[in-house]
Specification:
The protein contains eleven helices and 21 strands. By secondary structure, it is an alpha+beta fold. Strands 14, 15, 16, 17, 18, 19, 20 and 21 form an eight-stranded antiparallel β-sheet that branches. The protein has a six-stranded antiparallel β-sheet with strand order 1-2-3-4-6-5, covered by helices on one side. A hairpin with a 2-residue loop joins strand 1 and strand 2. Helix 8 runs antiparallel to helix 9. Keywords: ATP-binding, Kinase, Nucleotide-binding, Serine/threonine-protein kinase, Transferase. Its EC number is 2.7.11.1. GO terms for molecular function: ATP binding; protein serine/threonine kinase activity.
């Protein structure tokens, strides 16, 4: 729901609750914040507008929401305090007031990280599986119906609201084809749209997968459709794009999980919402580090200067980014030749020397940001088969520079994204300064339409601020850390350094 500009007919009192203000308004109801002086209780009062009070179908749905919600005794379902009808025929429901925001608002504010999204869908999945055991299918799972508040212990509280579209399992088989469809098309399962099969909990699994898609990528699975008919047809006929197309950091395993949850046929999906949430969690969990491969002579590596432009970023009051957003920064890099292979004298031959030599593969180049003194960066032996070259660096001398950094080149694009996913999984995700999405795409000012890689901001396990970024054309990954400061500005300073050195 969204806050309306004005509600001229706002009542003074409903059901003993004194109306304080409007919390939001949807197509079929208005929600007020009310205070009951006798109970000493704040409540969210959902009221059926006078214009709809005479519609029997709308009244039936409104009454069903109250009855269905009241029968679900779960801490993640909004509690019902009371229900009634005003003297002029308006139905109302007094519900527990959850102070906070919605998952949809968190996405729009850039505050929905992958880790937070996993927490949201995991708790919503628990609610849905409970409701399904009680014989209730929600049928309208979407980010705006997920309330985000705070628990007494400071942890985030996640509440599933709006059971107005819910159906009782015992009656779904008797639903008439072509009946009224009240669920939101952007998140609706194909069988709910077509009405060709009986609906069960797997319809909510589909909607939860659509919700997760939105939380992680910022987009619905089928964007760009301007009419409900086009959107409905997309759910029935089209395959959703891989989640990694919009979130390049996402591993292939997550693509498979979401694809299964969005299967057109219910029998091809996960049987329960909990199974889907568990599979998504496993897909984003760090995989065990593979055993080191036998040592081999690495290719000759050169580090050469290459110009980089500053990334496009959104400006906010919290941003600590230096210089103007329109200035492209040329990065001067350190030129170092890393000669790792031994001389010909080190080779023992069992026969005569060959008359020809096999040419070595061309050396890979790795670009280091400016600010590293000679000798502070050293090449290492990759322990991951997907990494071709790796270099570890000490402190960077430029303002805001990291205390340590690791720079690597992956063997292919898949290995690059897998390594980034492991970095993300081992840190606490935070929104980047300037309200930049994390993880999210970054771009150069010279070519703002084309993402060049993925940017991630986080807090490492030891509390150090961390920034990781990829430059996809070179299969390049950098992970840099800074030292926490009492004023909390370390991440801002590190981000400003990255913005001028990326």
């Amino acid at each position: 729901m969204s806050e309306p500009e004005s509600v001229p007919d706002r009542p003074e009192e409903i059901g003993g609750y004194r109306i304080d203000r409007v919390l939001g308004r949807g197509g079929m109801s208005v929600v007020y914040l009310g205070w009951h002086p006798t109970f000493g209780q704040w409540a969210a009062l959902k009221v059926l507008p006078q214009a709809l009070a005479g519609n029997p179908a709308v009244r039936a749905r409104f009454e069903q929401e109250g009855e269905t919600t009241a029968r679900l005794a779960h801490p993640n379902v909004v509690a019902i305090y009371a229900r009634g009808e005003t003297q002029d025929g308006q139905l109302w429901i007094a519900m527990q007031y959850v102070e906070g925001t919605t998952a949809e608002a968190a996405v729009q504010d850039g505050a929905m990280t992958p880790a937070r999204a996993l927490g949201v869908i995991s708790e919503v999945a628990e609610v849905l599986d409970y409701a399904h055991r009680c014989g209730v299918v929600h049928q309208d799972v979407k980010p705006s119906n997920i309330l985000l508040g705070e628990r007494s212990d400071g942890r985030e509280r996640i509440v599933l609201a709006d059971f107005g579209a819910a159906v009782i399992l015992s009656t779904t088989a008797e639903r008439e084809p072509g009946g009224a469809l009240v669920a939101s098309f952007a998140y609706t399962a194909p069988e709910v749209i077509t009405g060709e099969t009986a609906i069960d909990g797997r319809a909510d699994v589909y909607s939860l997968a659509c919700t997760f898609f939105r939380l992680v990528t910022g987009s619905v699975p089928f964007p760009g459709h301007s009419t409900a008919a086009a959107m409905a047809n997309a759910h029935v006929e089209q395959a959703a794009p891989p989640i990694s197309e919009l979130a390049p950091w996402a591993p292939a395993a997550l693509d498979e999980v979401v694809s299964k949850a969005l299967a057109k046929r219910p029998e091809d999906r996960y049987a329960t919402a909990g199974e889907f949430a568990a599979a998504a969690t496993r897909a984003l969990s760090p995989s065990p580090r593979p055993s080191p491969t036998p040592p081999t002579l690495p290719p000759r590596v050169s580090v050469t200067p290459a110009p980089f432009s500053s990334p496009v970023r959104r400006v906010s009051r919290r941003s600590m980014i230096v210089a103007g957003a329109a200035v492209a920064v040329l990065l001067a890099a350190v030129l170092v030749w890393l000669t790792v292979s031994g001389s010909d004298d080190d080779v023992v031959a069992a026969g005569p020397a060959p008359t020809t030599r096999t040419s070595a593969p061309p050396p890979r180049k790795i670009v280091l940001p400016n600010g590293y003194l000679p000798g502070v960066c050293t090449p290492g032996e990759p322990t991951d088969p997907g990494t071709e070259v790796i270099m570890s660096c000490g402190p960077n001398q430029d303002p805001g520079g990291p205390i340590s950094g690791t720079y690597s080149l992956a063997r292919d694009a898949s290995a690059l994204q897998a390594t980034l996913a492991r970095v993300i999984a081992t840190a606490t995700t935070v929104v980047c300064p300037g309200n930049m999405q994390s993880p999210g795409p970054w771009r150069r000012l010279a070519d703002p339409a084309t993402p060049k890689g993925t940017l991630f901001c986080g807090i490492a396990a030891d509390g150090r601020p961390l920034i990781a970024w990829t430059f996809d054309p070179d299969r390049f990954l950098a992970v840099v850390e800074s030292v926490p400061t009492p004023d909390g500005a370390a991440l801002n300073n590190l981000y400003a350094w990255w913005a001028s050195h990326s």
